[in-house]
Amino acid sequence: MKVLLDGKKASEAILDKIRLESEKLGITPGLCVIMVGNDPASSVYVKNKEKACEKVGFYHKTYRLMEDTTQDQVLSVIQEVKEDCKLHGLIVQLPLPDHINEELIINSIPVEKDVDCFHPFNVGCLLTKKKGDAPLAVAPCTPAGVMELLEMNGVDVAGKRAVIVGRSNIVGKPLALMLLNRDATVTICHSRTKDLPSVVREADIVVAAVGSPKLVTADMVKEGAVVVDVGVNRLEDGKLCGDVDFDAVKDKAYAITPVPGGVGPMTIAMLLKNTLSMAKRQRVCNKTS
Ligand code: NDP
Residues enclosing ligand 1, CB less than 6 A? Predict the structure, then answer.
């Protein structure tokens, strides 16, 4: 490995810039998280988001709603957030309990506060974005974090063969669009892909976003490839590990992300970056309206 794609270091540099920019803004950017139930992984993510807001001096508000909160109650909290001009970005933490219709809740997130690009309108903007268009108001945080980490480490994706393992709405699919917008040739793999190793072996850039520990092994990776591991898996001993067998793959890869300390901190940095740009936009709208 020549380059460790160090998301912790990169995210700290981004947070420093965000703090400086937000101090000059004249208003305090505000982020809201709505969490329903007690999913342990979600609780950790929400705490991390709160800590990051404090680091950069953002206002934050978390609605921790009981597991048995009704769908209508969640909708009325979303309406409250929509009307609160101190809150510029909103995330509804997924997964939601089974009795709540996830699609309906996502469709109710105000488009202008949809800080992780969940709403179909914003997803559509990502889909129809053409090369050379102005940057979007927001890009989904995890894929944006991957793109930023590659860029900060001088990885030019144009013309490269990128293989993404995983086709979720929050990681695999939007990342494919973002790589395509930057002129990569993109293949998306999933659980029905035939002969995954041979597809992954063709990649100059491999992104694993599955949730399966050490799924990507050294024999699946081309010598000199760039390997990005989005996966976060908790092992029986309590340690975190990614979807890539880091110790085996690092000797073949040109560049690779660690887990933890790779994509995770970049996701949070992008969340704050998006909150800042939404605060800027809403400040302009509030002035002109
Ligand atoms: P999902 O469960 O929504 O999607 C997983 C994808 O992996 C699906 O498309 C599934 O295929 C595919 N898949 C499952 N098994 C295989 C297999 N054997 N071979 C090929 N593909 C397979 O997961 P998410 O996208 O939400 O998350 C993926 C991972 O990334 C998780 O570990 C999650 O914790 C982590 N994550 C990390 C973030 C970060 O900030 N670092 C942020 C978000 C997620 P199919 O569609 O056919 O079922």
Answer: 142, 165-168, 170-172, 189-193, 196, 209-212, 230-233, 263-264, 267
* C-alpha 184 to ligand 1 mean position (Å): 21
Ligand 1 centroid, distance to 233 Cα (angstroms): 11
Q: What is the pTM of this model?
A: 0.96
What are the tens digits of pLDDT across the range 106-153?
A: 999 999 999 999 999 999 999 998 776 766 668 999 999 999 999 999
Task: Report CA(231)–ligand 1 centroid distance (Å).
Answer: 7
**Do the beta carbons of residue 1 and residue 253 sit within 8 Å?**
yes
Domain boundaries, the chain: 27-110, 142-264
Ligand 1 atom nearest the C-alpha of 192 is 47
Of 39, 191, 228, 267, best ligand 1 pocket probe by most atoms within 8 Å of the beta carbon? 191
| 27-110 against 142-264: fold identical | yes
* Domain 27-110 CATH assignment equals 3.40.50.10860: yes
**Crossing angle of the two packed helices 7-23 and 263-288, in degrees rounded to 10:** 20
